[in-house]
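Escalation from tier 1.

The customer reports that the assembly of four entities below gives different C-alpha cells on two consecutive runs. Tier 1 could not reproduce it. I'm attaching the input and our single run for tier 2 to review.
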Amino acid sequence: MRVGVLTGGGDCPGLNAVIRGIVRKGVQEYGYDFTGFRDGWRGPLEGDSIQLDIPAVRGILPRGGTILGSSRTNPLKVDNGIRRIKENLAKSEVDALIAIGGEDTLGVAATLSDDHGVPCVGVPKTIDNDLSATDYTFGFDTAVNIATEAIDRLHTTAESHMRVLVVEVMGRHAGWIAIHSGLAGGANVILIPEQPFDVDQVCAWVTSRFKASYAPIVVVSEGAKPKDGDMVLKDGSLDEFGHVRLSGVGEWLAKEIERRTGKEARTTVLGHVQRGGTPSAFDRWLATRFGLHAIDAVREGDFGKMVALRGTDIVRVPIAQATAQLKTVDPKLYNEVGVFFG
Amino acid sequence: MRVGVLTGGGDCPGLNAVIRGIVRKGVQEYGYDFTGFRDGWRGPLEGDSIQLDIPAVRGILPRGGTILGSSRTNPLKVDNGIRRIKENLAKSEVDALIAIGGEDTLGVAATLSDDHGVPCVGVPKTIDNDLSATDYTFGFDTAVNIATEAIDRLHTTAESHMRVLVVEVMGRHAGWIAIHSGLAGGANVILIPEQPFDVDQVCAWVTSRFKASYAPIVVVSEGAKPKDGDMVLKDGSLDEFGHVRLSGVGEWLAKEIERRTGKEARTTVLGHVQRGGTPSAFDRWLATRFGLHAIDAVREGDFGKMVALRGTDIVRVPIAQATAQLKTVDPKLYNEVGVFFG
Amino acid sequence: MRVGVLTGGGDCPGLNAVIRGIVRKGVQEYGYDFTGFRDGWRGPLEGDSIQLDIPAVRGILPRGGTILGSSRTNPLKVDNGIRRIKENLAKSEVDALIAIGGEDTLGVAATLSDDHGVPCVGVPKTIDNDLSATDYTFGFDTAVNIATEAIDRLHTTAESHMRVLVVEVMGRHAGWIAIHSGLAGGANVILIPEQPFDVDQVCAWVTSRFKASYAPIVVVSEGAKPKDGDMVLKDGSLDEFGHVRLSGVGEWLAKEIERRTGKEARTTVLGHVQRGGTPSAFDRWLATRFGLHAIDAVREGDFGKMVALRGTDIVRVPIAQATAQLKTVDPKLYNEVGVFFG
Amino acid sequence: MRVGVLTGGGDCPGLNAVIRGIVRKGVQEYGYDFTGFRDGWRGPLEGDSIQLDIPAVRGILPRGGTILGSSRTNPLKVDNGIRRIKENLAKSEVDALIAIGGEDTLGVAATLSDDHGVPCVGVPKTIDNDLSATDYTFGFDTAVNIATEAIDRLHTTAESHMRVLVVEVMGRHAGWIAIHSGLAGGANVILIPEQPFDVDQVCAWVTSRFKASYAPIVVVSEGAKPKDGDMVLKDGSLDEFGHVRLSGVGEWLAKEIERRTGKEARTTVLGHVQRGGTPSAFDRWLATRFGLHAIDAVREGDFGKMVALRGTDIVRVPIAQATAQLKTVDPKLYNEVGVFFG
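Tier 1 run:
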C-alpha cells in the first residue's frame, strides 16, 4: 500500500504535525509507503513528489509551514486535470490520497473520491476556524495566541498615550479569531464579518471607555464591514504608483473614529505573523491526532471522509457535507461577549 | 441581590478571568452586588471579605493567581463550620455563593447547596484537567504550553550531549499534562499515573532512540509509578538534616535509566512554573465564559450546579455528580500516542 | 528633599522600571519624597501630579507603558512655559526633577538645568536606540526581540508559498532595530535609513535567494529610502475618503519587487506591538539601573547630567552633549552584516 | 585554506549562530573550506569530522544546541593527545582551528597555539557569563530571559498561597544569572556564590516581605553557600537506593526558611531549560558577530587570540589572559541591587 499526501491552500501552523502523524503511524503500524506531493494539487497534477519516510518527518513537529509546500492550484479548473491526476497516481503506484487543506482543497478531494473513484481522505485546515463539522481546526489556537499577545502589548501603548488602537486580525468570512483574541486580550470593541457594525455605536463604546480613564482597543476581523453602506475600499482604484489600493477595514475605521470622536487613533494589521511559526501545544496535539486518525481511515478503507474534532474525540464525517457550509459566529455567542464592550 | 465569590485550592491561571466575568456581567446586566471572600472557604468561615465591583476587576484578565487569595481550608472539618458560614453569609447579606475550585472546594459547595440550603453554583478548577463532566478546565492549556516549551528547549541540550533527559510534569492522579505536553513536545517516552510503567521497557525505548542517533526525552507525571513494586520514595524517611526526603519519580527514574543503560541521564522538575503567570488565550476564553455562565445560573436560580465545557458549549451539571469520579486518561488514547515512543 | 519625576515622548518598555528604581532607592536609602508629574512636561506645566511612594511602584516592574502617562508637550513652545513650570515646581515644593525621555524631553531638561536654574537629571529613552553617549537604551532589546520573533514566524510562511515577505520595523532616522532583528531573524536583505537602497540590488538579492530554493525575507526600517529618487509616499496626497494617504516604504517596496521580479510579495508592518508590553530581562535590568543611578546623581547634586550605559557600567554625561547628535549605524557595521544578504 | 571548527563544554544557545557566521563569511568572502570536528576536542583527537559548507549551516541560526555536538574531552589529559591532534589536523589538511568553548576548551586552544604551533582562534562560551575580558558571552541573555519569565510566573503562585518560593538558577562560581534574573524578576532576595549568605538575614527579608502583605521570591545561584558553615549537601552520602544524594542549595534553603520562620516554602530548580532552545535576539546578534570576527582573526593570522565584546565592539584579546581569571559579581554591584531586598 502506498499513500499520497498533499497540503493545499494557505499556510497554517500544524501542517507538519499532521504529516508526521500520518507517516509515523502508517509506516510503523501498517507498513505503508508514502509519497509526498509538492505544492498541493499541483503535485499530483504534474507528478511532482518527494519521498516521505520516517527520517523525512523527524524534527518537523515544532516547525511552522509545510515541508511539502502549498499552492492554490485547483485541478478542477485545469484542462484534463482529473485525468492527469489519475494518470500520475497510477504512475507513482499511489493507492490512496490524504489531502490536508481548506474548503477548496477538500472540495477537490470530495469530487475525486465521490465521482472519480480516487480513494481520498481529508484533513481539515483553516486558520479562520470556519469549517463546519469540526469544533476546532489546527492553527487557529496559535493564531489566537499570537493575536492575544499583540493585544496585551498594545494595551500599554494605548494607555500611555490615551489613544484608540484598532487591531485588524484575520477572518474574511468568520469572526472566530477576532472574538477569541478580542475576549482574551480584553478588547473594548470586537467587530466581526457576521455582524455589520454601526460606526457611531463603535464611537460610543470608544468614548465610554475614555470616560472611565482607559484607552480603548478595537479588534476587527479583516472581513468585517460597516452597516451604513460606507465603502471600506474601492476595488480597482489605483494609487499614485498605478497599483491597486490596499486599504483595509482597520485603517479605514481608525480614520472614521478619529473624525467622529476627535481622539487620536492608530491601526495595527497583524497580517502573516498570525499564520507562521511554531504551533501552540494544542495545535500540535490536534494536528497530530488528525494525522493518526486520517491514516486509520485509509487503513479501514473509509474514503470520502474527513477527520474532525467533536469535544475531545476525533470523528469522521463525509467531506462533501463538512464543506457545504461555513461555520460562522453564532449571534448568541457574539451577544454573550458583548458584555465587555465599552 | 448580593452574590459571594470565593476561590479555593491550588493556584491556576484563569481564576481572575472567572471572577472578572462574573462581576462584569452580574453588575452590568443584572445589577447585582458582589462580596469577595478571601482565601477560599476561610473567607466565609471567618467573615473575611473584600468588595468586588467593576473597578476591582479591571486589568486582572491577563494576571495569574487570584485576587481573592486561596487556601485549602475545609469547613466540613472545622467545628460548627457550616453554621459559622451560614451566619457570616447572613451577616454580609449574601444571597448566593459562587465557589471556584477543585474537587474539595466544590464538594463543600455541593454539601452546602444540597443539604444545608445555601444556594451555591460551582466553577470547576483543576490544573490537572482530571474533573469529570467537563472536556477541559482552565489553567490546563497554560500548563501544557509551558511544559511543551520546556521540552522544546530540552531537546537541543539532550542532542548536544547525547544524554537522556527526564522531565517531571504535574499530574498526581491523571496523566493529562504529561500526555498532552509529551506529544506536543515530541517526547520519546510518556509515563502516566494510569499506567504503571516497566523500567526495562522505558530503557528499551531510550536505547532505540540512541540507535537512531537522537537523544531521548522522557516525560513523566509526578504521580506515575513503576510496575515492579520499586519504591520511588520512602515516606517518612529523613535525610541528614532531619527533614523528610523529597525524591520524586523523575529523579528516581533518571538514576534507574543510568544504572540500567549506562547512558547519562538528567532530571528536570518543572514544578510551580506550570501553574503561575498569565493564562493562555484559550484559558482566558474558557475561564471568562465559565464566569459569564456561572452568574447566569445564579440569575436563573439553578443552584447545586457546576458549569462545564462540552465541545464548544458551556453546560450545567450537578456538582455532586461532576466530582464523583476522577477523569483519567483512557488506555485507548494512551495507546494511540504510543506510536511515538522509542 | 522632594524630587519630581516625569516621562515624555513615545511609549517604551522599561519606563516603569526606571520610576520604580528611582523611588525605591530614593525613599529607602535617602529618605526623599517624590512627586510624579503626569503626561511628560504637561504635568509640571499645568501642575498635574500624583503621589509617588513605595506602594505606588509595587508590581510595576514587568508592566509596559508608564504609570505617569506621557505626551509630546514642549514647554519651550508654550507661552511662559518655563515660568509656569518654575512656579508649579515651587508650589509643589519640588527641589529637583528627573526627566525620562528622548531628544525632545531631555532637550527641555538641559535648557531648564543649564539656563534656568532648575536642577534636572536626565534618563535617556528611545526605542530606536539612536541616542549618542549610551551603548543602549532600554526598550530597544524588547523591540528587537518582538521583531525577531515575528521574522522567525514569517520564514515558514514565506517558504510554504515561495513568496517575498517585506517586514517594516521601527526606525525613522536610524536602522538599529532593522539591523539587529534582521540579523537575528536571518533576513536576506536589511535596509536602513543611513544607506539609501537600490531597488535593483534588492531584487538581485531576492532572486538569488529564490535560486537557492528559499524564500526571501526583506527587513526594512520605516525610515529607509530608495536611492533612485522614487517617492515612497506623496506627502499631502489624499485618498478617496479625503484622508491623507499613509503608505509606508514596506508596502511600496513589496509592490516594486513584485513588478520587477514577477514574484509574489507581501508586507507586514509590525507597528506599535514593538513598543508595548512587558520589557525583556535586559531592559528591566538596564532601566532599573538607570533609575538607581539617576537618584544618585540627584543625591550628589550632579545636575544637567544624563545617565548612560558604557559597556556594563552606568556613567553620567552632560545632557546637552548627549542629545547633540543622533547615533546612527556605522557603514562598517552595515557592511559586516551584509555577508548574509542574498 | 581549510579551517577546522569545534564546540566544547556545556550546551549554550548561540553555538550554531557562531558556526554559521564563521562559515558564511569564510566561504563567501575568503573562499575558505571548513571541517567541522565533532564533540569538542574528541573530534580532532580521533579524527571525527563532518563537512561544513553553506548548505550545512542553513536554518541553524534559531536553533539551540550545536550541530557539531560537544563533549568535555580534554586532550591535555589524554596520552599523546597533542600529537594525535596535530596528526589528525595534518591528515585533514586543516591549516587553522577555531575553538568555541569555555575556560577548559579555550585553555587547550591557548596551549596548542602558544606552545605547539597549532594556529588557533578562540570564541568564548559560558552560559554563566563568568569569563573575564568580555562584557557578555552569548547564551547568558537567553538564560536570564528564561529565568526571569519563570520568576514572573512564580510571583502569582507565591501571592495566591502566601508562600516563600526559592528559585535555584545556574551559576556555580559566579552569580550573574541570579543577579540579572532576580533583579529583572523582582525577587526579594538574591543570593550569589561571591557572597556567602546569612540564613537569619534571609529570614528577616522574607518576614519583612510578608509584613507588607506580599509573598517573597528568593533567587539563589546553584553555587551560593551559607555563611555559617552549614553543609548544604554531604558529598558522598548515599540515599536509600544507594545513589549519591543530590540536594541543592535551593531545596536546603527552603527547608531552613520553613524551620526558622514557620512559613511554607517551596523550591523550583530551573535546571537545563535555562541552557536549551532558541537563542534570544541579543544572543543571536552577539554569537553571529563573534563568528564573523573569529574568521577575520584567522584571515589576519592573529592566532592565540579570543574574540570578546567591549561595549558594542568586538575586540581581540590573548586567550591565555582572558581565561586566567573568573569574572565575578562586584560587591558594589551586589550592593546596588540590594536596595530591592526585603
